[in-house]
């Protein structure tokens, strides 16, 4: 069991990649807390994990709200006793050109994808410190590393912010044994990418941009999260783990 004795909090854990992280970490012995806006889906994931013999809880969380974060982390520590890992996974997408992007849309995406990660880190650090150290895993994107005509200014900027916020956190807290790394998925089969996959022209353009010629599966990202969350990555901090089928290698 690679996560035995650890408690992990996962934002956006009700579906998609967050669900995959939750199920995998729980299967490796972690007690997992899922925070999400989608209460029905989140509670179903918790029920499934518990049916399989794992320990899990759901908490309603809007990642843009600092008070939600404080309540969510407090509830996790109340239930499980400590916090060792946080996976900042919740996010939304966005597509379009700079000149077509409204200020409201820019603010919405940056609030969820960048401020949401900042608040997750900020709230978790005192608890990770109390536990004697821990691991923060932030889900960025390959879109946070290179520009793309198939994304948007708000999405790419938010994911680039996560990449550097990760490194800032890593160097500020390294001496306390708190590690912080980012994961950069390429296109993955989740609800987020459903609309793009439904358009044959866009789907074809996306596939053409992936050297491996396919979308990834959520478990292929969860495996990277598991590694960074576990003690196997004990000397890894400030790194960016790219899991993108070769997108950024070209
Ligand atoms: P998804 O839409 O399937 O799931 C996202 C989850 O985040 C949902 O459960 C949603 O309810 C939750 N969420 C959204 N806004 C929230 C908020 N304000 N507060 C709390 N929860 C909120 O998407 P996914 O594909 O699973 O994406 C997960 C993460 O991975 C995102 O950060 C996304 O940007 C990133 N990512 C995804 C892909 C991909 O191709 N799917 C690629 C690179 C990066």
Task: List the SSEs and their pairings.
Layout: E1 7-11, H1 16-27, E2 31-36, H2 39-51, E3 55-60, H3 66-80, E4 85-88, H4 103-130, E5 134-139, H5 153-173, E6 178-185, H6 194-198, H7 200-208, H8 218-229, E7 240-243
Parallel strand pairs: 1-2, 1-4, 2-3, 4-5, 5-6, 6-7
Bound molecules: nicotinamide-adenine-dinucleotide.
Nicotinamide-adenine-dinucleotide is lined by residues 11-12, 14-18, 36-38, 61-64, 89-92, 112, 139, 141, 185, 187-188, 190-193.
What brief labels describe this structure?
250 residues; Rossmann fold; seven-stranded parallel sheet; 7 strands; 46% helix; 16% strand; globular; binds nicotinamide-adenine-dinucleotide
What does this structure look like?
- The chain has 250 residues and is α/β, with parallel strands linked by helices.
- It has a single domain (7-236), classed as NAD(P)-binding Rossmann-like Domain (Rossmann fold, 3-Layer(aba) Sandwich).
- The chain is built from eight helices and seven strands.
- It has helices at 16-27, 39-51, 66-80, 103-130, 153-173, 194-198, 200-208, 218-229; strands spanning 7-11, 31-36, 55-60, 85-88, 134-139, 178-185, 240-243.
- A seven-stranded parallel beta sheet has the order 3-2-1-4-5-6-7, with helices on both faces.
- Strand 2, helix 2 (39-51) and strand 3 form a beta-alpha-beta unit.
- The radius of gyration is 17 Å and the shape is globular.
- 46% of the residues are buried.
- Nicotinamide-adenine-dinucleotide binds at residues 11-12, 14-18, 36-38, 61-64, 89-92, 112, 139, 141, 185, 187-188, 190-193.
